[in-house]
Design brief:
This protein is an alpha/beta fold and 394 residues long. It contains twelve helices and 16 strands. This is ABC transporter permease.
Length: 394
């Protein structure tokens, strides 16, 4: 009898442990932890962890369930990303997934969310197609999209009498970005003179730079080369070395991670628009993130740290509002949902689930005591200041 009681007690304890484990709220993070965008991926992971900490007041529990982050490295490769997300939903029983870093990989995993009827929050990939033609109802995005990047940059540098040429990477991120930029630039009265695309692996920009110079050098008024580039290569510095000023040509680009902003120090006065720079947003969430990140890592939070943080806050807001992790209840709760982030308020637009959000027009200032270029705010471009087109066919 005693042996039977011990066995029964053991079985009950194991069952209780299994039940508790099953009750974990599992969030899968698919990201390019290794590969060309690993710096972005690591920031996303840090931001996600800190965002959950902040939103749950340090408990890492939500609705009585422990939040467990399951990470999967897709190396920035579409086929690996698809397999990783399928595994997260099917084997790890993830309630919600977040990812991924590369736009090409993100586009590949959209159908996996639909097949599994599970929510995928896209962060930080920005290609317009994600909430455009390739979108499905299970996709939400906290990351900004190419149109938000483009519209904010067009507003920052475009006006009547300005002529612009673009340089972008030859894949979804770059081509979507330029397409959106062209559309936005036309509304400012500026003229687009040329588009150049280069492989992501390009390190020698001499030929492409000369073609851009030739397209602009004889134009009247202000002339600008706008660059949209992610990862290595540093085309801005290479173009600057070619002395565009001899033709009266200015360089411009959007914001970037702090290590990349070091290259902007050679471009004092350059203007553009950015998704995030730690010293610009003034709100309690960002105050906490900046102070806590500085304390933990002896450095300010970066571009994609804020993105990961926003994704975490959207999950907490959604599950709290839905009082469930049931997919249909989450979709109902998330459509039109407002939530706080380090950038202030974001809103998931009902029509395409894109998070509408502020962007920031900046001007580069050089401070010898700071390792990167300081992005001084010119003005906040609020949600209502940007007419972000709906590009899906819902």
């Amino acid at each position: 009898m005693r042996r039977s009681l011990i066995i029964t007690t053991t079985v009950l304890a194991l069952a209780a442990a299994t039940a508790a484990h099953a009750d974990d709220l599992k969030v899968a993070l698919i990201y390019g932890k290794t590969g060309p965008l690993e710096a972005y991926a690591k920031q996303t992971e840090t931001g996600l962890q800190m965002g959950f900490e902040y939103a749950t007041k340090g408990t890492m529990t939500l609705d009585g369930r422990k939040i467990v982050i399951v990470t999967k490295d897709d190396q920035g490769k579409p086929d690996l990303a698809k397999a990783a997300l399928a595994e997260a939903y099917q084997d790890d029983k993830a309630d919600i997934a977040i990812g991924t870093t590369s736009s090409a990989a993100a586009l590949a995993i959209l159908p996996v969310a639909e097949e599994n009827k599970k929510i995928l929050i896209v962060e930080p990939a920005v290609a317009d197609q994600i909430t455009g033609e390739k979108w499905n109802r299970y996709i939400f995005r906290t990351a900004r999209n190419s149109s938000q990047d483009a519209i904010s940059n067009a507003v920052a540098i475009g006006k009547q009498g300005v002529t612009v040429a673009t340089l972008a990477q030859d894949y979804a991120f770059g081509r979507d970005g330029v397409a959106a930029f062209k559309e936005a630039l036309a509304k400012t009265g500026a003229t687009l003179a040329a588009e150049e695309y280069a492989p992501t692996s390009t390190t020698d920009f001499t030929a492409v730079g000369q073609r851009l110079f030739d397209a602009l050098k004889d134009k009247p008024g202000r002339k600008v080369i706008w660059v949209i580039w992610a990862g290595a290569g540093n085309p801005l510095a290479k173009l600057q070395d070619m002395d565009p000023k001899r033709y009266g040509i200015d360089l411009s680009t959007g914001g970037n991670i702090l290590p990349a902003l070091a290259a902007y120090k050679s471009l004092p006065g350059m203007e553009g628009a950015t998704y995030y720079y730690y010293d610009i947003p003034k709100n309690p969430v960002n105050d906490w993130l900046v102070a806590e990140h500085q304390k933990r890592f002896n450095a300010p939070p970066d571009f994609f740290t804020a993105g990961g943080f926003a994704a975490a806050m959207s999950v907490v807001a959604a599950v709290t509002k839905a009082k469930s992790t049931d997919t249909e209840k989450l979709i109902t709760a998330m459509e039109g949902m407002e939530f706080d982030t380090p950038k202030g308020k974001m809103v998931f637009r009902k029509e395409d689930h894109q998070a509408l959000q502020s962007m920031y027009h900046f001007k580069v200032k050089v401070d010898p005591n700071v390792a990167w270029a300081v992005l001084e705010p010119v003005r906040e471009l609020k949600i209502e200041d940007m007419d972000v087109p709906i590009k899906n066919k819902r």
